[in-house]
Amino acid sequence: MKTRAFHKTYNNRVVLSLPELELPEGKITAVIGPNGSGKSTFAKILAGIERADEKKPILDDADIGYLPQKSFAFRMSTEKNIMQNGGDPARAGELMKVLGIDMLARQSAKKLSGGEMARMALCRILMRPYELLILDEPTTAMDMESTLAAERLIRKTCTEQGCALVLITHSISQARRVSDRVIVLHQGKLVEQGQSAQLLSDPQQEQTRRFLEFYGV
Q1: Which residues have a Cβ under 8 Å from the Cβ of 4 and sit 6 or more positions away?
Q2: What is the pLDDT of residue 179?
Q3: Same domain for 134 and 203?
Q4: Do strands 64-67 and 189-195 pair parallel, antiparallel, or not at all (unpaired)?
Q5: Sites in the chain below the pLDDT cut of 70
Q6: Which domain holds residue 89?
Q7: Per residue in 106-135, pLDDT tens?
Q8: Contact, 150 vs 116, CB < 8 A?
Q9: Are residues 78 and 124 in the same domain?
Q10: Is residue 1 situated within a structural domain?
Q11: What is the C-alpha R_g of the chain?
């Protein structure tokens, strides 16, 4: 799967200017970079939530799933929230058990903690398969054990469904643990991209090296 080159302008300022990008099926592509580099804007444009300046989708038609950075809940139980994206109770139960919220199935989702709501939202988006799945900081509110469980589930989903999966993350450690490829953004531009193991251990660009050094990699 390949995106088209595009630009995005806010208030006469170009905030994103990216070339064609390869998003391989069955692989996780992590998008990293400092705050304000355009990661979430890229995710929204990729998902079709926002339009690029070119006023057309940057992908050909594809079944896209998008999990925004901020989790939300409908005024219903945790289980019913999850089943809004698919009606299979067995699948919902399996996902809740994996992420440790099965005991909260009948509880009002509005009463969930931040970490619990993040796990509920991840269960909901994973209720059905997609050709492209975009997850924007899905584990930010989770504790360590929940994060690792979520990462295993994300990895399993991508492998089993063969989808192209884009993971927006501020965590270099997470990108190292989970992703196959990495895209590095800085001030709305592509700095570097490549295989995760190689890029994160031996970056070729000075901006990438500085970014990784700052975050302790």
Answers
A1: 20, 54, 56, 58, 59
A2: 98
A3: yes
A4: unpaired
A5: 216-217
A6: 73-129
A7: 999 999 999 999 999 999 999 999 999 999
A8: no
A9: yes
A10: no
A11: 17
